[in-house]
C-alpha cells in the first residue's frame, strides 16, 4: 500500500468514525444535544454556544460530527456550515456567502443580524417576525459576575491578533489589561467586568461587552480575521450603533489615545429587538 492509499484509508476511517459517533448519539444518547461549534482553538465566541444551550435546556452538549442527523447551530459565524438537518438559532454568516448545502427554512428559528437575514431571504421565504440577535446577548440571564473594576481599559484581541497586541503593550505602565479570548465564558466575562472600557477586534468581545453594559470600541489590529468586517456589520445591524467603524491600531499610542476622550470613543451598542423573543425562539420542541 502506497502513501496515497494510506491517506485515503485514514480519511475513510475518520469519516466512518464521525458518522458512527453521530448515529449513536442520535439514537441512544437522548440526554445530549448535537451542536455545531468550532473547537480546534479554544475561543469564548465558540464556547458561549454550548454554555447557553446547556443552561437553557438542562441537557449536555456534544459536538456534532456530521450533517447526516439533526443538529443545532447556535452562536457564531457558522451559517455556512448549515444543512437540511440543521436547526438554526441565532447563527450568522461569516462572509456573506450562501451556505453550500440546502437549508430547511422551517428549521430557521433566529439569525444574528439583518445581513444574514437578507442573505437567507434571497433564497427562502421566511417569517417576517423571525427573531434577530446573537444569543450571546442572553449571557446576563445566566451569569452575573461580581462588579470589581480594576482597570481603565481592557484590550481584547482576536486570537489571530493576540501576539501583535501583546507586543504593542510591552513596557506600557498604564492600567490596561489584555484579555485572552481563549478561555471559558464565565472566566472571560469576569475579566471584562474588571474593566471600565473595552476595545476589541473579537466580535464576541464586543457583543459580551454590550450585553454587560461595558462601553466599548471595535478595533482592528490586522486584516487576518476571516470574512473581514462582514460579521461585525451583521451584528451591529440589530443595534442602535448605526455607523459602526473600526479604529485602526498600529502603535501603542493608538490604544492610549482611546481613553483620552472616552465619551467620543466608547459606547454600549443597544440591542433594538427583544431578548425575550430571542430566548423563546430556541427550538424547544426539538431539543428538550
From the alpha carbons, calculate the radius of gyration and give it in angstroms.
Answer: 20 Å
The order of strands across the largest sheet is 2-1-3-4-5
What average pLDDT do the residues reach? 90
Q: Indicate the structural class.
A: alpha/beta
Domain Polysaccharide pyruvyl transferase: 106-215
GO molecular function: transferase activity
Keywords: Transferase
Protein name: Polysaccharide pyruvyl transferase
Describe the structure.
The protein is an alpha/beta fold. The chain folds into two domains: 3-135 and 275-286, no CATH class; 139-264, Toll/interleukin-1 receptor homology (TIR) domain (Rossmann fold). The protein contains eleven helices and ten strands. Strands 2-1-3-4-5 form a five-stranded parallel β-sheet, sandwiched between helices. Helix 2 links the parallel strand 1 and strand 2. The protein is globular. The protein starts with a helix and ends with a helix. The model is unreliable at 3-15 (pLDDT under 50).
Topology of helices and strands:
Layout: H1 3-28, E1 32-36, H2 44-57, E2 60-63, E3 71-73, E4 86-91, E5 108-111, H3 114-121, E6 151-156, H4 162-168, E7 176-178, H5 185-192, E8 195-200, H6 203-211, E9 216-220, H7 230-236, E10 247-248, H8 252-258, H9 262-265, H10 275-280, H11 284-287
Parallel strand pairs: 1-2, 1-3, 3-4, 4-5, 6-7, 6-8, 8-9, 9-10
Pfam families: PS_pyruv_trans
Protein name: Polysaccharide pyruvyl transferase
GO molecular function: transferase activity
Amino acid at each position: 500500500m502506497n502513501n496515497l492509499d494510506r491517506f485515503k484509508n485514514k480519511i475513510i476511517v475518520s469519516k466512518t468514525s464521525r458518522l458512527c459517533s453521530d448515529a449513536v448519539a442520535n439514537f441512544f444518547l437522548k440526554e445530549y444535544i448535537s451542536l455545531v461549534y468550532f473547537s480546534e482553538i479554544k475561543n469564548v465566541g465558540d464556547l458561549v454556544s454550548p454554555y447557553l444551550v446547556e443552561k437553557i435546556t438542562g441537557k449536555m452538549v456534544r459536538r456534532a460530527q456530521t450533517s447526516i442527523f439533526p443538529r443545532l447551530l447556535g452562536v457564531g459565524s457558522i451559517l455556512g456550515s448549515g444543512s437540511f438537518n440543521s436547526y438554526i438559532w441565532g447563527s450568522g454568516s461569516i462572509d456573506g456567502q450562501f451556505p453550500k448545502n440546502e437549508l430547511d427554512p422551517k428549521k430557521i428559528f433566529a439569525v444574528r443580524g439583518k445581513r444574514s437575514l437578507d442573505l437567507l431571504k434571497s433564497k427562502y421565504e421566511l417569517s417576517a417576525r423571525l427573531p434577530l440577535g446573537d444569543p450571546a446577548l442572553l449571557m446576563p440571564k445566566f451569569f452575573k459576575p461580581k462588579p470589581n473594576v480594576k482597570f481603565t481599559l481592557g484590550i481584547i484581541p482576536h486570537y489571530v491578533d493576540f501576539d501583535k497586541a501583546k507586543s504593542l503593550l510591552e513596557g506600557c505602565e498604564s492600567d490596561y489589561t489584555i484579555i485572552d479570548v481563549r478561555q471559558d465564558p464565565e472566566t472571560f466575562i469576569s475579566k471584562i467586568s474588571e474593566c471600565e472600557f473595552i476595545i476589541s477586534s473579537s466580535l464576541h468581545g464586543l457583543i459580551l461587552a454590550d450585553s454587560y453594559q461595558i462601553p466599548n470600541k471595535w478595533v482592528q489590529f490586522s486584516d487576518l480575521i476571516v470574512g473581514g468586517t462582514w460579521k461585525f456589520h451583521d451584528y451591529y445591524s440589530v443595534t442602535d450603533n448605526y455607523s459602526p467603524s473600526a479604529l485602526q491600531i498600529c502603535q501603542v499610542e493608538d490604544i492610549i489615545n482611546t481613553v483620552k476622550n472616552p465619551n467620543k470613543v466608547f459606547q454600549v451598542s443597544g440591542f433594538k429587538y427583544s431578548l425575550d423573543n430571542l430566548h423563546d425562539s430556541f427550538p424547544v420542541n426539538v431539543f428538550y
